[in-house]
Amino acid sequence: MDLGLKGKKAIVCAASKGLGKGCAMALAREGVDLVINARTKETLDATADEIRGATGAAVTAIACDITTPEGRAEVLDAAGPVDILVNNAGGPPPGNFRDWSVEDWQKALNANMLTAIELIRLTVDGMIERRFGRVVNITSGAVKAPIPILGLSNGARTGLTGFCAGIARETVRHNVTINGLLPGPFDTDRLRGNMKLQADRAGVPYETFAKQQAEKNPAGRFGTAEEFGAACAFLCSVHAGFITGQNLLMDGGAFPGTL
Fold first, then answer.
1. What is the per-residue pLDDT for 91?
2. What burial letters (b/e) apply to 207-223, b meaning 16+ CB within 10 Å?
3. pLDDT at 258 over 90
4. Tens digits of residue pLDDT in 105-154
5. Is 84:236 a contact under the CB 8 Å cutoff?
6. CA distance linking residue 221 with residue 198, whole number of Å
7. What integer pLDDT is reported at residue 259 of this predicted model?
8. Which family does this protein fall into (predicted)?
9. Cα–Cα distance between 253 and 235 in angstroms, integer?
10. Which residue from 236, 237, 235 is spatially nearest to 248, judged by alpha carbons?
11. What is the model's pTM?
12. Alpha helices in the chain (DSSP H)
């Protein structure tokens, strides 16, 4: 299927690895020109080279902290008129809510809610003027099924979801959609790091623990960044203009509900 995205311009946040990289690669394969960002320049530059080599797409890599006004300004200046915005940020650390200070909450909200809202604010009117825009927020399956030790993430990402649910109904008449992609267990550095901690606490070898966790999923495995990126590319496509304000849960069927 031709997704109708050739020549479009996209910003993909936190795209040096993991799910952000999967989304960037999938969009590049559809002929989208990319501006990607992350904090670590060496990793980001290597990813940009990999995407260029695999797809021939134009890729601009901006190493910055997207949670700061300066970082956002640098990315937006490099991108110019933006057709597609993929908001993404690493989640805050797990823990017990009794140990979190107001500062901890402010950091989580800034990274996982307010930065995405600010990037939408700075790009959505241009999308409306050009009569095409796609915003995809990478959040978490915890938005639908909260995880107790991920309270910082639960709160911040659910706040972003609630905000976007409202404005998505206002922008869609201009062919500008806003949706969420909610990952469950995907084979990423973050998942592997969390499982390593859990395996150490349980006194179980990592490989054994990881296999056990994968088998618990109805799919019998973890997801891949490639299939996550493909879903993102479809939501960004010309065929998805009637989908807005929705949250696509990608968890291999782990959520045991009908809605």
1. 86
2. eebbeebbeebeeeebb
3. no
4. 999 999 999 999 999 999 999 999 999 999 999 999 999 999 898 999 99
5. yes
6. 18
7. 81
8. Belongs to the short-chain dehydrogenases/reductases (SDR) family.
9. 20
10. 235
11. 0.95
12. 18-29, 41-55, 69-79, 102-109, 115-130, 151-171, 189-202, 206-216, 225-235
What are the helix (H) ranges across 13-58? 18-29, 41-55
Q: In this structure, what are the phi and psi dihedrals at residue 133, rounded to the nearest 5 degrees?
A: -165, 145
Angle in degrees, CA 149, 89, 108, rounded to 5: 50
Dist. CA 67–CA 65, nearest whole Å: 5
Q: Which two tokens stand for residue 208?
A: 């054994």
Give how far Cα 141 sits from Cα of 47, 83, 229, Å: 26, 26, 16
Sign of the Cα torsion 194, 65, 168, 132 reads: negative
Q: What is the pLDDT of residues 194-213, one digit of tens each?
A: 899 889 989 999 999 999 99
Q: In what order do the strands lie in the sheet with 84-87?
A: 59-63, 33-38, 9-12, 84-87, 133-138, 176-183, 247-250
Q: Give, for 35, the enclosing helix (H) or strand (E).
A: strand 33-38
Residue 84: pLDDT band (50, 70, 90) is very high
Q: Please tell me the distance from the alpha carbon of residue 232 to that of residue 27, in angstroms, as a whole number.
A: 8
Amino acid letter, 91: G
Q: Cβ distance 96 to 152 under 8 Å?
A: no
Which residues on neighbouring strands pair with residue 176, listed in sequence order? 133
The 3-state DSSP class for residue 98 equals helix
